[in-house]
Write a structure and sequence with these properties.
Blueprint (H helix, E strand, L loop, with lengths): L1 H4 L3 H4 L2 H23 L2 E10 L4 E13 L2 E3 L5 H7 L2 H20 L8 E5 L2 H5 L3 H12 L6 E6 H4 L3 H13 L3 E7 L6 H4 L6 E4 L1 H5 L5 H16 L3 E4 L5 H9 L4 E2 L10 H10 L1
Parallel strand pairs: 2-4, 4-5, 5-6, 6-7, 7-8, 8-9
Antiparallel strand pairs: 1-2, 1-9, 2-3
Helix pairs in contact: 5-7, 7-9
The structure holds ligand C2E and magnesium ion (MG) (3 copies).
One magnesium ion binds next to strand 6.
Amino acid sequence: QAKKAGRNSIRCFDPRMQESINNRVALEADLQHAIDTGQFILHYQSQLDHCGNIIGAEALIRWQRAPQRLLLPSEFIELAEETGLILPIGQWVIDTACRVIMSWQHCESKKHLVLSVNVSAKQFQQTEFVSAVKAAVKKHGIDPERLKLELTESMLLSDIDETIAKMKALREIGVRFSLDDFGTGFSSLQYLKRLPLDQLKIDKSFVRDIAEDASDRTIIRTIIAMAHTLKLDVIAEGVETEMQRQLLIDYGCNHFQGYLFSKPQPIEQFDAQLQKN
Ligand code: C2E
Ligand code: MG
Ligand code: MG
Ligand code: MG
């Protein structure tokens, strides 16, 4: 039967599959166009300490595909990764983040803020990654300590020596590192202790059910204990309720990010929030 379908099998192709291929091709072309015409923007979500002071923000990319159409990373980052377009996009993110940090440095009330930036696996694995970050830091004349790069566990597993070398090279000039979505990967303590990290970021999936789920509470306490053992700072993402914040504080977490404090927002709104803080 299969043989019979043979070279005409393309006709039996599910039309929905063809449609999704067409969509993908169109999306890829649009993505390239978006890069060329500057359709990306960064939103900023505040990060707070246990007293409620804003200590920094995470930059989160959005694609303004049309005036009324703002796309979230879940709608394009994967394709950007697959096509390699994440490289110019990632470079734009770092450059834009450095520009924002530079503007903060000129303002007495914002000088202390740290901006966290997500880095994709492909981007980090580029040979030129270290020099590209250094060049952006230099170009904007920023204090590298105000820049924090968020990596994920999975992207660090491939070549640990190379990973460590790159992180060390950037840490030498002051750039900080956070391990995003922590707890969802397979890092052992043995492995973690070799990484020159500054922070562990507790994944929001553990925070979500912290009030109801005893095993999530145990995981969170374990992560916080690990962070303390390794002398790392720890931040929880996805904090939506006062109850979650309180439990996290009880467990020794001292930095927070989530809808309870603010959604990711355009820089003007982030500035307004800072004014009130
Ligand atoms: P992430 O780095 O783990 O970012 C946290 C995500 O959680 C963000 O989704 C944020 O909007 C969302 N979030 C924040 N607070 C809450 C909360 O209280 N509750 C819930 N349910 N969610 C919350 P977003 O902005 O859609 O980004 C998704 C992912 O896309 C990011 O996850 C990151 O992996 C990736 N991403 C975002 N910006 C960039 C970028 O510039 N470059 C790269 N390579 N990836 C990016
Ligand atoms: Mg992140
Ligand atoms: Mg995360
Ligand atoms: Mg995540």
